[in-house]
What does this fold into?
Amino acid sequence: MTDITAGEIPVFDSIAAFREWRKEMIRQNKTVGFVPTMGALHEGHLGLVQTAKQECDVVAVSIFVNPAQFAPHEDLDQYPRTFDTDYASLVASKACSAILLPKVSEMYPVGITLDRSQQRGTFVEVQGLSHQMEGIPRPHFFRGVATVVTKLFNIVQPDRAYFGQKDAQQCVVLRAMIRDLLLPIRMRSIPTRREADGLAMSSRNRYLTPEMRNVATLLYRAITAAKEAIIERGVSDREEILAPAYKIIDEVSQEVKAQGLPFDIRLDYLSLVDVETLSELTTLGKSQAAILSGAIYVGTTRLIDNVLINTNEL
Amino acid sequence: MTDITAGEIPVFDSIAAFREWRKEMIRQNKTVGFVPTMGALHEGHLGLVQTAKQECDVVAVSIFVNPAQFAPHEDLDQYPRTFDTDYASLVASKACSAILLPKVSEMYPVGITLDRSQQRGTFVEVQGLSHQMEGIPRPHFFRGVATVVTKLFNIVQPDRAYFGQKDAQQCVVLRAMIRDLLLPIRMRSIPTRREADGLAMSSRNRYLTPEMRNVATLLYRAITAAKEAIIERGVSDREEILAPAYKIIDEVSQEVKAQGLPFDIRLDYLSLVDVETLSELTTLGKSQAAILSGAIYVGTTRLIDNVLINTNEL
It folds into this structure.
């Protein structure tokens, strides 16, 4: 086991060694908060770590780019791996007590291929919540997330686990998973951190060129306009709610074209769902808790965002 | 929390109350063995409890007839529920420290229907090991088993878990699940207990009439004859190995018919698989560890059994 030296954080790339650290926390009667990440840490992640530190005695952060949640055509190989800066950020945060950096071979003992039809081993699926919204373009995604989070929970055995609300559906899926599998873990979802202009912080933002970055706020502006239709104008009809969002996305796409910028804006979807069932709503009930979300491509980079309606919790 | 009175065993029908018992065991620094059952306890189960008690400080037994592992046409409603005699057997065993008797509504918080297409909630599937052998006639079965055992493990958090080798494929599936999900649990598989005439003990044996019980050993005699072909005659070809087994089953079926008994014997399958991959073997390698198994119907009662080749462990 790595020693905990002042100002430094032990990094465990072996599950067995991490378990020893965890046992020591039990001996010391310390509550453990857990922030699972895929690295490429930004202020959003560090905010989760800070909140965890406020609520728990010690905080463990995992960094693991999970193959099972990528499809063969997606960006697994390209996904940013920035351990040195991640480590420096966590040290600077003064809120992280241990880093779990597991190997793919330990996390997937029988291996993991991205070709779902060839996958072997144990998988966790949350039925009823995994195949709408983000689950339509990414039918494999939430099975991969639920599986890796189950494994990480079994290693870390946290008292509380922290997730960002930017991944709204992930929060709903994992809260259901914790409940269904009777995991003795308190799920905490934390509001999305945004840049000054409203862009949701995301590890994938670094794929954006400056020109792309300039227009990337369009999704947030679109869903915010839709939320205003609900909150300020009392609109309840789905099409009326989403109309201003579609309008903004359409206008910005046209502008990008008109300016001859070397990329396209393409809307993947806009969605308005009930916060519990994740079923699409044709009419929003008075004070019904809902998620207004969407995904767009800016060039080849896919960005997601959401705003919550009549709730702060996921 | 129920008091532990001398000679009595606390019975927890609330998960929260069981968790308090479990926490007390942690405080007392006691290792916990776990025997999950569906009740209708027989000597096979009690043997698991005894072995667990030899290897752990305390033993928890769960009794839960798991709906998710039954198909709509199977015997969920008819499955024997005999809590009073189960409780008496566990008290008499002097080896059980706690009984978990959870409610379906707590185990499946969003409910559970036997119609798989309508099921919602979180499920665990062990791919590659769940859809051969018992998984052919019962395609839903191991998903139901893996799901409920994951839930039970999350409640009981045992150091060691005990399963009977009569359910050979279940042992292989659950050992893979524990490994894949990185559960900090030691899996123990215990040899099948048999009646004096060789019949594997099973809760479903009580469905048999005396006339059925008389012939029910045919499956064990069949797979034992096949095993003898391997061990005593060095046979390696699948068809040659299984030939004496088919012969016995055919002969007994004919006898039952000739005697005009009021039931039929029907072979479901015979199987010879590698112990790790559970793939059917056309040739058994020299000293290759394998499972020789089968399922038969005696009347409407389905019985399974197996013998191990070149191994004692599952």
